[in-house]
Amino acid sequence: MNRILLLEDDNSLIDGLQYTLKKQGFTLDIARTTAQAEALLSQNTAYALLLLDVTLPDGTGFDICTKVRKTDSRTPIIFLTASDEEFHVIRGLDSGGDDYITKPF
Question: Of 10, 65, 85, 102, which has the highest C-beta tally within 10 A?
Answer without folding.
Answer: 65
